[in-house]
Specification:
The complex is a heterodimer. Chain A is built from 5 helices and 4 strands, in the order H-E-H-E-H-E-E-H-H. Chain A is of the alpha+beta class. Chain A has a single domain, classed as Glutaredoxin (3-Layer(aba) Sandwich), CATH 3.40.30. In chain A, strands 2-1-3-4 form a 4-stranded mixed beta sheet. The longest helix of chain A is centred in the N-terminal third of the chain and has 16 residues. Chain A is globular. In chain B, 21% of the residues lie in helices and 26% in strands. In chain B, the strands form 6 sheets. In chain B, strands 6-3-2-10-21 form a 5-stranded parallel beta sheet, with helices on one face. A 5-stranded parallel beta sheet of chain B has the order 12-19-13-14-15, covered by helices on one side. Chain B has a 4-stranded mixed beta sheet with strand order 1-9-8-7, with no helix packed on it. Chain B is globular. In chain B, helix 1 runs parallel beside helix 6. Chain B has 6 helices and 21 strands. In chain B, strand 2, helix 1 and strand 3 form a beta-alpha-beta unit. Chain B is α/β, with parallel strands linked by helices. Chain B folds into 2 domains: 189 residues, FAD/NAD(P)-binding domain (3-Layer(bba) Sandwich); 112 residues, 3-Layer(bba) Sandwich (FAD/NAD(P)-binding domain). The chains are: A alpha+beta, B alpha/beta.
Chain lengths: 141, 329
């Protein structure tokens, strides 16, 4: 049995039809997967199997240390979403509960190359002239 | 701890229909507050072909916390009420242009054109203009650059950030004192500055704020400038009697000096009063045939949610009658 409910899988098939551009999910785990690494790995496999526009690339945090360093990954499970460039969208820990919806929304946004933000917000964001590191800490409870 | 599951919340992914550029709607509803949303419900129930163009849903309702005068509820959470309005409107499958700012409404050959800042234009046989009001700024140096950096216009949104901090509240009416109440609840040290001589707020509200013992009241002062580079560090105010300036050190400034109608898009089309409100009659008609106004943006007195909702209903029914009488539907 998969991680996704059948009704959610059907919904994702429908939602992913809107993806016009390639989305790459880079996932860092390790050989002896922790409980959350394993669950995250499984659900990402299922998500990527739904659309040929969504590809999953799995790396070992230990043996691919150079690549992990390149992406700034210092803990696992780490899920990175890439479009035509690295937007810096990283999920650490299991993207479950409410964050599962955020993960899906992010995949859709990247696939559509549309952040779905208003012109006002985009204009404000365009004023940011230096790198900003945003971290959102969440609890799945 | 339970293992977090991987379930979709379908409501987050509902695709809302977008209005079309090449269609002429029976009515275009501009706005997303109680007036606009009620108009949308009434128009939808009359089977009118409508679209909604709005920056957001909820309007000023989302800027307050609790509502105690929405009939049927002794007390209702403002966000819950706004969410229920939105859900009600969306149940009619109406095309909605969300995050859309309307630049101008024009009319040519009895067809209204609604132009938005993303370059789109939408056509309608009638328009229900219900864009509400926005906070009036102080209009002094330092204000623009410090919004969100210590300068705030919504206590419900931002008061919790000022726990134990020094805050100046601009204004002397009920909104200013309600803001003061929100700030004293989080333990802020307050200074209230009133431009007009004499505090305008209800006595009971004034007493509640004064009784906290943590508020300084400065009457008949004007704001000169807000100080701070990256964040507010203080304000300079001037005694309007003596002309003397003084500095108040502060971490935050909350501005509650009234509201301005969002009537710019129709300023070249409809009659406005001296306050910039759209002049309407008791059937929500403006001086332009087919253009109806509803809610806080209009001259209808007593800016209340329940009144705006009622006006929205009236505007939709008036638009319906207009369309029928002109053989459009």
């Amino acid at each position: 049995m998969g991680m996704l409910k059948e009704e959610d899988r059907k919904k994702l098939i429908d939602l992913f039809k809107a993806i016009k551009n390639q989305v790459k999910i880079i996932f860092f785990t390790q050989e002896m997967e922790c409980m959350y690494c394993s669950a995250t790995h499984d659900v990402l496999e299922e998500i990527s199997s739904i659309s040929d526009k969504v590809a999953l690339e799995v790396h070992d945090f230990v043996t691919d240390a150079e690549l992990a360093k390149k992406y700034g990954v210092d803990k696992i499970p780490a899920t990175i979403l890439i479009g035509e460039k690295d937007y810096g969208i990283h999920f650490y820990g299991v993207p479950g509960g409410y964050e599962f919806n955020v993960l899906i929304q992010n995949i859709l946004n990247i696939g559509k190359r549309d952040a779905e933000l208003s012109n006002d917000v985009l204009a404000e964001l365009n004023k940011v002239d230096q790198p900003v590191h945003l971290q959102v800490l969440i609890s799945p409870t | 701890m339970d293992f977090p599951d991987f379930s979709l919340d379908s409501s987050l992914f509902e695709e809302v229909k977008k209005p079309k550029n090449d269609e002429t709607y029976d009515s275009i509803i501009i706005g997303g507050g109680p007036a606009a949303m009620t108009a949308a419900v009434y128009a939808s129930r009359k089977m009118m072909n409508i679209s909604i163009i709005t920056k957001d849903f909820g309007g000023q309702v989302r800027e307050t916390s609790e509502i105690e005068n929405w009939i049927g509820f002794q007390n209702i959470n403002a966000k819950d009420l706004a969410d229920s309005f939105e859900e009600h409107v969306k149940s009619f499958d109406v095309p909605i242009c969300l995050n859309c700012n309307v630049l101008e409404v024009t009319i040519e050959d009895h067809i209204f054109k609604v132009l938005t800042d993303d370059g789109n234009g939408y056509s309608g046989h009638s328009v229900i203009f219900a864009t509400g009001k926005r906070h009036r700024p102080l209009g002094i140096p330092g204000e623009k650059g410090l919004v969100g950096r210590g300068l705030a216009y919504c206590a419900t949104c931002d008061a919790p950030f000022y726990k134990g901090k020094k805050v100046v509240v601009a204004g002397g009416g009920n909104s200013a004192f309600t803001t003061a109440m929100d700030l004293t609840k989080v333990g802020a040290e307050l200074t209230m500055v009133n431009f007009i001589k004499g505090w305008q707020a209800d006595e009971s509200l004034q007493e509640r704020v004064k009784s906290t013992g943590n508020t300084t009241l400065l009457d008949y002062y004007e704001f000169v400038r807000i100080e701070g580079k990256d964040k507010v560090t203080g304000v300079i105010i001037k005694d309007r009697d003596k002309g003397e300036e003084k500095k108040i050190t502060a971490d935050g400034v909350f501005v509650e000096i009234g509201l301005l109608p969002n009537s710019d898009p129709v300023k070249n089309l409809a009659e406005l009063n001296t306050q910039g409100e759209v002049v309407v009659d008791c059937l929500c008609r403006t001086n332009v045939e087919g253009l109806f106004g509803a809610g806080d943006v209009t001259t209808v007195p007593h800016k209340q949610i329940v009144i705006s909702a009622g006006e929205g209903a009236k505007a939709a029914l008036s638009a319906y009658n207009y369309l029928i009488n002109n053989n459009i539907i």
